[in-house]
């Protein structure tokens, strides 16, 4: 059983870590665009949404989680930048060959549901099913934290 | 059990996860999802948990969308409905 002793860590930082990252992100949005306010509200919403996901990924551990790495990579690609990742000791495969995934089949009905999950979790496409579930647990915790932060902000800004 | 493990460890250098850990992960997921937390019985199947997880994630994404929308509106508005709102807006450079 020695090889199965991998600790499954789903530690998530406190809400104020997420809040701080998000507020910084939001205030940066304005300093990037001080004089000309984006005309289209759709652009504004898109930028805020992106700030939410990126700040969430950073608050949750940046490049130490597969889903946050995938999220940050995706966001950086949008901006035509590149993300610097520290070299990980474990070999990271960017593409899991289909042969490997197939060899890891759990019950087919579980695999089918896992496939749908892979499309929802950032970076899920290359993950083994068990890793996918671990990442999903962490992703869900962080997402709900981020939602709480945003709700607080909306409540603060709303008319009393 | 050991024969299963050895046949799997052939494929890669990473440690193999046992089926026990899979069901452990499934139950962890189950606790995280509000829908399923209410039915604390262990009778929820793994595929049901994964299915509900998908729904939950989709809902969370939708909430982020909705809240982003409202935030954008609220930040852009110039009526200072409350002192708190004015403070927050000035903090964020709006």
TrEMBL record, chain A:
Q: Which keywords does UniProt give here?
A: Nucleus, Transcription, Transcription regulation
Native source species: Arabidopsis thaliana x Arabidopsis arenosa
Annotated Gene Ontology cellular components are: nucleus
Sequence ranges assigned to domain IBH1-like N-terminal in this UniProt record: 18-77
Query: Span of the secretion signal?
Result: none
Q: What is this protein called?
A: IBH1-like N-terminal domain-containing protein
Q: Which CDD domains match?
A: bHLH_AtIBH1_like (cd11444)
The protein's location, in the record's own words, is: Nucleus
Q: What are its GO biological-process terms?
A: regulation of DNA-templated transcription
């Amino acid at each position: 059983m020695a090889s199965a002793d991998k600790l499954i860590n789903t530690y998530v930082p406190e809400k104020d870590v997420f809040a701080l990252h998000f507020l910084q992100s939001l205030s940066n949005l304005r300093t990037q665009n001080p004089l000309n306010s984006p005309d289209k509200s759709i652009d504004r919403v898109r930028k805020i949404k992106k700030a939410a996901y990126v700040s969430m990924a950073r608050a949750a551990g940046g490049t130490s989680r597969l889903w946050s790495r995938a999220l940050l990579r995706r966001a950086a690609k949008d901006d035509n930048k590149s993300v610097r990742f520290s070299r990980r000791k474990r070999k990271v495969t960017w593409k899991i060959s289909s042969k490997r995934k197939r060899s890891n089949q759990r019950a087919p009905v579980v695999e089918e549901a896992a496939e749908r999950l892979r499309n929802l979790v950032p970076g899920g496409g290359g993950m083994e099913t068990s890793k996918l579930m671990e990442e999903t647990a962490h992703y869900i915790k962080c997402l709900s934290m981020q939602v709480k932060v945003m709700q607080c902000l909306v409540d603060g800004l709303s008319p009393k | 059990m050991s024969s299963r493990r050895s046949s799997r460890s052939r494929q890669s250098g990473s440690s193999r996860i046992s089926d026990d850990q899979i069901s452990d992960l499934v139950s962890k997921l189950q606790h995280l999802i509000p829908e399923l937390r209410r039915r604390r019985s262990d009778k929820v199947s793994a595929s049901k948990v994964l299915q509900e997880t998908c729904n939950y994630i989709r809902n969370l994404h939708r909430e982020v969308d909705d809240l982003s929308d409202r935030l954008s509106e609220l930040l852009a508005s110039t009526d200072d409905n409350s002192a708190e709102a004015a403070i927050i807006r000035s903090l964020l450079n709006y």
